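Any chance you could type out some protein's one-letter sequence along with its backbone structure tokens so I can compare the two?
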Amino acid sequence: MNKKEKRMAAQDALLSRVYDLILNKETLDDERSKLIEFKDAVESGKDFEQQLMNLAESLRQLAIRKLNNKETLSPEVGKFYMDISTTGLLKKNFGTGMTVISFLS
């Protein structure tokens, strides 16, 4: 399997996890909304890695808002966030991308 095939397989696996989380009864509505936004953007042909960075940032901001209210992300979405925030799918310039996104917000 070449690099591109490996990347596509990893993206497919990640998208499958997103589908499962969307359908998971424990996923909260605000989390589900962020996951659906990601799914729709990727399915419409937008850049997968950029959308993944956007999703990670959205979930990070959601987690911070919840923390301020003494709440947490649902368990499975929390695990998913930890996985995508440290995955090799995110480019090495993740920090730069987050800086740009924060300026655009």
Summary: The chain is about 75% helix and 0% strand. The chain has a mean pLDDT of 87.
